[in-house]
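Hi C.,

You asked whether I'd gotten around to modeling the 286-residue construct. I have! Everything is below, sequence then structure, no commentary in between.
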Amino acid sequence: MSLPPNFGQAFDLSSLTKPKADPSAPMAGIQVSVENLSTEILPLSLVRPVIVLMWSPRSSESVEMIKTLGKLETDYKGAFALARVDVDANPEVGQAFQTKSVPYAVAIIAEQMVPLFEQSYPEAQVKMVIDKVLTLASEQGIGEAPAEQIEPEETEALDALESGDYIKAEAAYKKWLARKPAENLAKLGLAQTQLLIRTEGLDLNTIVSQSALTPTDVDLQLRAADVEIVNGGVEAAFSRLLQAIKATSGDERTKIKNHLLQLFALVDPTDPRLAAARKELASALF
């Protein structure tokens, strides 16, 4: 991994507050420094993927992410290695990874850096990211892809989706969630299926044209966003609802915001379009 030309320059972490964690407490992962980045971390990435988390003792969220990743490193039986960069103690390393905020995670696979996420996520979503990292690494001959485990309700739902029976698929996902309420794949599958139910029979061009004629019709704007995202128009759907949030207030704004959050859940957490939309939503609301 080549270092950027501005390696070693200061970067802005002014959004952080006073220390919230004891940096002397034992923490999971390999501590990364200027000295061992090239001698230990990069060579290790040739054996198994290394997930590097940029953190600060002043950020409680980043401390929690280390705990989450440490637990997952154990759960995955060392299929990946966890490393951590204290950006306060090692600003040069933080700058090498182009850190703008913490927590910030990247993967190193065969000495190549792959950005992962720039905020805290629940364990279930982090596991999905790790699975993708392991799959990507296996495609480059490093380690093995995670074993795929199919639940019976998932099989039922996928069969129903393949036959176009969205109602049956919805019921299967709900049954799965009744058995495993915290199962993130079931939640995602249910949300995707309900999106298909909401958009079944709707024509993209027709709905978008209608929404342009009546921009104050909230329900129509929600339908248009649904149709856009099911047709791959992620940015268009996000932009539509963000503009609607800015133009409304009270219950209408809350309804649009909640719908937008549902659409956020359908997008890969590492997608930069999602990160940008989240920032714009926060700006619009606060």
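If it helps when you're writing up: Residues 1-21 have pLDDT under 50 and may be disordered.

Thanks,
B.
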